[in-house]
Write a structure and sequence with these properties.
The protein has 492 residues and is α/β, with parallel strands linked by helices. It is 49% helix and 14% strand. It is built from 22 helices and 15 strands. The strands form three sheets. Strands 9-11-12-13-10-14-15 form a seven-stranded mixed β-sheet. A six-stranded mixed β-sheet has the order 3-2-4-5-1-6. A two-stranded parallel ribbon has the order 7-8.
Length: 492
Amino acid sequence: MPNRHDLEIILQTRTPIVVIESHEEDRLRDILKAIATRLALPLFWWTVTDGLGRVDLDLAPQKHNAAPDKVLAHIKSARQRGIYVLADFHPFLNDPVHVRFLKDIATDFDQVESIIVLLSHEVSLPTELAPFSACFELELPDDRELRRIINAVASQWQAQNPGRKIGADARAVEALVRNLSGLTAVDASRLARTAIYDDGAITGGDVPAAIAAKHRLLDRNNVLSFEFDTARFADVGGFTRLKQWLEQRKRAFRDARAGAGIDPARGILLLGIQGCGKSLAAKAVAGVFGVPLMRLDFGVLYNKYYGETEKNMREVLRTAERMAPCVLWMDEIEKGLAPQDTDSGPARRVLATLLTWMAERSARVFLVATANDIASLPPELVRKGRFDEIFFVDLPATEARAAILAIHLRKRELDPATFDLEALAAASEGFSGAELEQVVVAAVYAAGADERPPQTRHLLAALEETRPLSRVMAEPVAALRAWARGRTVSAD
């Protein structure tokens, strides 16, 4: 089992108090049973509902030791060497009597060797106990253990369905194992059961559903929005240079073995004019790589309570790593990392957390950050080395404008061949993709008022009546394009 040896070393090094934060009680019970047997130590387990019992011998819990003060008094007075697991003891650590009991047990360790294991989803250890303690973090199941979990679920299904065999595609099984990575044993078993019990088989069709369910399990705070079906964005028109850049790095990113000896692609910054397709480009990245896309919502990330925002950010990054391989999209990153009002503390701390993660991460998480205003971004974020490349998404050229108009006409069941796209493209100089879509919408409404099907003249009239952002805010747009020239790579 992953890092069982590390826990055994901690227990062997005569540490009086061991803190374990985990939801996997059953898995830890099995691990501790194996270690206790190996070390020839009795293993006791306590809960406030069942009291204290010796679990390595499967003896009945002693109900009279259920109260927190009673069990601590018993451990102190019994003077029996062993491992004592106190499950969900965290609410009782605020009581000074309980803290004193634990300190007495710890200071008497050389004579008795009673090891206290505090096991809970979250443990805030009082400072006076810190010198006597060590922390252990249980690793998530590795591929070998995940295969055992899937096999166990398959065996359960077959036992419930005598005479039937599991239909298993070897490639689908490996894909399921790969995509269960990052989950606890309990959650992995649950998703494996969903995949198998649905139709008694493991097929390629089970993988997307497993990934979506995995995201729901990991992102319980709804800070990340998730989209798996990004393949269709890989064929979006435009972004020629960006797609070529991604294709060169695709294999090394998706398959660590194929990229042996090659630095994996880590991320890009997409800078550009509003409405020109930065969001579409982010989706195209996930589409080209063929991996899930997760979008960070900075509005949900920030919390009014001190320290909670940074905690949310760490949880986001941890979730992204557990979803790997994936693309993490941070939209309008300047709004999330630029100082807010007079208090820039949270933004600075979030930035520090992000920069540390960008420098140290090993998981295959490709970061796509989009921004409208480069001047608002902290200099330390955009310096050389933070991103693999900075791409500029400019106003669409003539050919691209014709293609965009054709796309939006088709969406409304209109035949582009019946429109003079050449004339429309020429008349729409300076329009963004979003503005061209609105021109089509306006033309459809205008034609409906005339009780006629939309024609070229309706679109030309809508173009004439629209003032694109490149004219309304000509100076800022021109300044941004001038800054990008020579400093960034064109996405198209």
